[in-house]
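Key result, reporting period 2: structure in, sequence out.
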């Protein structure tokens, strides 16, 4: 079973009962479970949730994640977040950055999630990025999720060719 939220490019699926006991000192009610860059689907079918007919489990369907992005290529950045037990306002942003002459430069950025999140759901959200600029070399794809007064982040290394 899944429920779509009234947010662009966001799907949420129920994952069952949240644990009633948290570890002492645990502060993260939302956890990023994946962050990927993949080719944009010209048919607009992926990303999607439960796109595999007959599957016995909830599943997410995205373009195959890549570690090398091409100059001028356009990619979709997909994020999955497990909202363990937080309900309230939340947002998520992505950034594609690169070190240039000793300074971190943002090559692309955008919103992945915004609105109200509900505990005990897993969110799959995505955003189309701008064409990759002519900046060959190491880069970093990062996402940050803000929820209440907390935040969680994940960084993924990429190479621009």
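The corresponding designed sequence is given below.
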């Amino acid at each position: 079973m899944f429920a779509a939220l009234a947010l662009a490019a966001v799907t949420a699926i129920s994952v069952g009962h949240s644990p009633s006991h948290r570890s002492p000192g645990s502060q993260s009610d939302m956890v990023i479970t994946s962050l990927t860059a993949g080719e944009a689907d010209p048919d607009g079918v992926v990303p999607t949730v439960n796109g595999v007919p007959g599957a016995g489990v909830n599943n997410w369907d995205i373009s195959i994640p890549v570690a090398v992005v091409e100059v001028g290529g356009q990619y979709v950045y997909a994020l999955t977040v497990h909202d363990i037990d937080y309900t309230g306002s939340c947002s998520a942003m992505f950034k594609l950055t690169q070190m240039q002459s000793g300074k971190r430069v943002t090559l692309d950025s955008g919103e992945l999630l915004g609105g109200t999140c509900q505990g005990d759901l897993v969110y799959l959200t995505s955003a189309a990025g701008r064409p990759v600029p002519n900046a060959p070399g190491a880069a970093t794809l990062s996402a940050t999720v803000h929820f209440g007064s907390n935040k969680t982040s994940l960084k993924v290394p990429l190479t621009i060719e």
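The chain has no helices and twelve strands. Residues 1-8 have pLDDT under 50 and may be disordered. This case is discussed further under Risks and Mitigation.
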